[in-house]
Amino acid sequence: MEEAPEQAVTNSGSGNAFSHYVRHHLFLLSSLLSVFLVNCISMRDRFNTVVNVLGDCVGLAMIHHLSEKELAVMDHTHEESLNRTAEAAAEDHLSSMESQYALSEIE
């Protein structure tokens, strides 16, 4: 009832071949799945980036539209203060020149 030694070797050899086949295919399958998952994650991240940028643009447009009047008033006020500062600087410069030189020397 015992198997011959040659049959035992061939039976165990076919078992090794099958286990090698299964291990090899499981390795390939796990490699393919990991590549697929990495690609899915990177595509999801790219999609999220596009959505985030689009959301930022929409938010910025809404804020600009809602605060357009206030920004115009601030720009006008800022321009007036710059003009006043430039005029004051010119007057200071002229008054310092007048104090250094006599009016006859300037003309």
UniProtKB/TrEMBL annotation:
<feature type="region of interest" description="Disordered">
    <location>
        <begin position="88"/>
        <end position="107"/>
    </location>
</feature>
<feature type="compositionally biased region" description="Polar residues">
    <location>
        <begin position="96"/>
        <end position="107"/>
    </location>
</feature>
<protein>
    <recommendedName>
        <fullName>Amino acid transporter</fullName>
    </recommendedName>
</protein>
<keyword id="KW-1133">Transmembrane helix</keyword>
<dbReference type="GO" id="GO:0016020">
    <property type="term" value="C:membrane"/>
</dbReference>
<dbReference type="InterPro" id="IPR036458">
    <property type="entry name" value="Na:dicarbo_symporter_sf"/>
</dbReference>
<keyword id="KW-0812">Transmembrane</keyword>
<dbReference type="GO" id="GO:0015293">
    <property type="term" value="F:symporter activity"/>
</dbReference>
<feature type="transmembrane region" description="Helical">
    <location>
        <begin position="21"/>
        <end position="41"/>
    </location>
</feature>
<keyword id="KW-0472">Membrane</keyword>
